[in-house]
Amino acid sequence: MKKYTMNEINLKQFIFTIYKTQIGIGVLSLPRDLAKTAGTDGWLAILLGWLLAILFSIIIIKVMEKHPHDTLFDLFPKLFGRWLGGAVSSLWILYSTFSATVAMISSIHIIHVWILTNVKESVLMPLFMIPVYMAAKQGIRVIGRFAEFVYLFTLWMPMILFLTLHESNWLNLLPVGQNGWFAILGTVKATVLSFLGFEVAFMLYPFLQDKKSAVKGVIIANTMSMLIFMLITIFSYVRFSQDVVMEYVYPTLNLLKLIRLPILERFEIIFLPFYLFILFMTVIPYLYMSVFGISRLLGKPDHRKYLRVLMLGWLALPFFFTPSYAHITGLGKLWGNLGLCAAVVFPILLWIYQRAFFKFRKGSLR
C-alpha cells in the first residue's frame, strides 16, 4: 500500500525539482572553476560530468526500485538494522542540513555583495526564510509545484544570455584540447560537483506517481542542467579570454554586466532578484529532506515542528557568523566533498550492499 499517496508528484515535478536543485550557486562560478584546470576546454569536461551524473542517478533509482514505497529513511533500518540504520539516517540528515544551510548563507552573501551592500545579513535572513519555510512545511507536492512555477517563471533567463554575444571571439575555444586530455579529465570532479542535486532523487522517488519513468526523469533533468552549464560556460569563454575569466569571482554575473539596454544598465541587478527563486529551489529540497528525515527517525508524522527549530537556528546564525568570500568558498568546497560522498560513493556502496543483502537473504531461505 502506498504510504505517501496524498503527497505524490508527477514526472514533470520530479524533473523540475532535480533540475532546479542543480542549477543554483555553482553555476555562477562554474566557468572560472573549469578554467582553472582545463582552460577554455572546460566545456568538454561538462559532457563527461553529465554522463557520470546520469550514471549515478540511475544507480540511485535502481536502489530505490527494490523498495518503491519506502523513503530513504524507511530503507536504512530494513537494510542495516535499527541502530546502524539510525546512524546512517543521522548522517544523511546532517548532510542535508549542512547543504541547505550553506546554500542559504551563500545566497544571502551574493545578494548582500552585489545588490544590498548596506543591508545586514541578519535582516536578509528572515526575508529569505519566508518563501523557503512556506514551501518546505507543505511537503513534496507543494515543492514539486513550486519547482514547476520556478521553471516557467525563469524560462527567459537562459535566452537573455544571447545578448552578451556581441563582440565575442569564438576563436577563444580553439584549439580544442589545447591543455591535454589529462587536464580535461582532472576537471571532471568540478563538473560533477556542479551536477550535485541529483541525489534528492533518493527523497523524491517514493512520491513519484509513475515510478517506471524515474530513469527517464533523471536523464532529462541532468540533460537540462548540462545544457545550461554548457551555455553559460561557452558564452563566458567566447566573450572573455581565459585570463579574464580567472579574474572574476562569479563570471556569470560579470557576463550579465555586459548587457546594455536603452533604459537599463547593470542588468545583473535586475537578474539576481529573479534568480533568487532558483536559489530557493536549491535550499528547499535539502531542507525538507533534513526535517523529513528527523521526523522519520523519531517516528513522528509531522515534520513542521523540526522545521521551525531549524528556522530559529538560521535566524540566530547571522548574529554569530558573518561569512566572508573565503568562508563561502571554504564551505562550498566542504559541501562539494560531502556531496561526492553522498551522491557518488554512497549510492554505489548502497547498491552493492543491497544486492549482497538480497542474495544472502534468498540463500538463507533455501
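the 2nd protein, sequnce then structure:
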Amino acid sequence: MALVYGDVTIVVDERDDLFYTRAALQAHRPGEGRVTVQPTPASGSPAALAHDMLYALGKRLAPGPHSPDVWLDSVNAAWLAAAAWGAAIGVRHVVVPRAHLLTIRRIDQLLAWRESTGAQLTLLWQTASRGLPLVLARVERRISGRDQFEALLAEPGPIPARPFFPPAPPMAGPAVVAVAAGQSLAWQPRETRAASLRPGRLAPPCTGAMATAQLVQTAPALEIASEEAAALAALAHPLIAGALSVLAFTRAGLGSLRFTRDLDITGDVCAIKLHGVGHRYCPLHAVPAWARPLLAGARAHHRLTAHPPADGVFAPVMLAEARHLRAHAGRLPQLDLSLPAGALVP
C-alpha cells in the first residue's frame, strides 16, 4: 500500500518485499531527474543523510580527518549543497528505501529539502504502518500493488522549483557607452583601459554577461581531459566545483572569482564574465558543456541563500585566503591549479 500526501508518497511494505527495493534501485536515473538515495545504516553523523543525497547525485566528499570538505559536516551546509545540486541537475523525483530506519529529524530534513527543490519524494516504509510518524500521517489518496508502484516510478515528476531572478536592468555609465560603440573594455589594450580610468575616479559599473554577450564575442574555453572534467564534476560543494571549473577552462587568476556576480553568468550558463580590479579587464568566456552543470550548481547555491544578483557568487569560498578552494585544487594536480599565495590578487 502506498500513502500519498502532497508530493510525498509513503510506500508501506510490511513484509519487506525485495521487489520494492529492487524497483527503487533500478529507477535511479539522475539524467532523467529521478534519484534513489540509500541511507547509510546506523550513521551517527548529523549530516549523514545529506551526504547520502550528495552521493546519489554523483558527488564525492574528500576523505580524511583534514578533508577540505569538513565544512560539509555541518547539517545546514550539506543540505544546502544537496539542494543546489538538485535544482541544477533538475531532480524531479527522489526515492528513499529503508525510510522506516530514519529518525524524525532526518525525515524533517528530507521534507525541507523537498520544499526547497520542488521534487517528488517517495519513502519506502518497510515495516508496519503503525510506526509512521505524525508528520507523515496525513494522507490524501492511497494506491496499492506492484503495478501502481512501477507506474509511480515511471512518472516524470513535477517541474523542479528552480531559483529565479529576473534579468538585471542595464547599468548606465561610460562602460555601457563603450560597449554600445563596439569598444568593449574587455578587449581594449591594457594601456587604453588604464588611461580611461583617471586616478581617484571611481570605476564605472560593469554590465552583466547577458548584455555583454550581445555585443562582444566570447573567448573560447580551454580544453581539459575528460578525466579531469569528471574529477571536477564529482566535487561535493557547488561553489568549489564551479570555481575550480572556471579556473580550469579560463586559466584566470583566483582573484577574478572574487568579483563574479550572479548576473555575470548567462541564463543558459553558456558564458561567464570575469572582472579585474577596477573593471579594467572584464573578459567574457564561453562555458564548455562539461562545466555548465557545475556553474548552474554554484548559481543555484547562491540563489538559495537569498543573495541579490549583484553579490559575488563565489564569495563564501574566498574567505580565509580561500583555504577550502586551495585544498581542493591541491588534490587535482593534473589541472595545475596550485593557486600560489598571491593568486588572490589579479
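The two ends are 60 Å apart (CA to CA). The longest helix spans residues 75-89.
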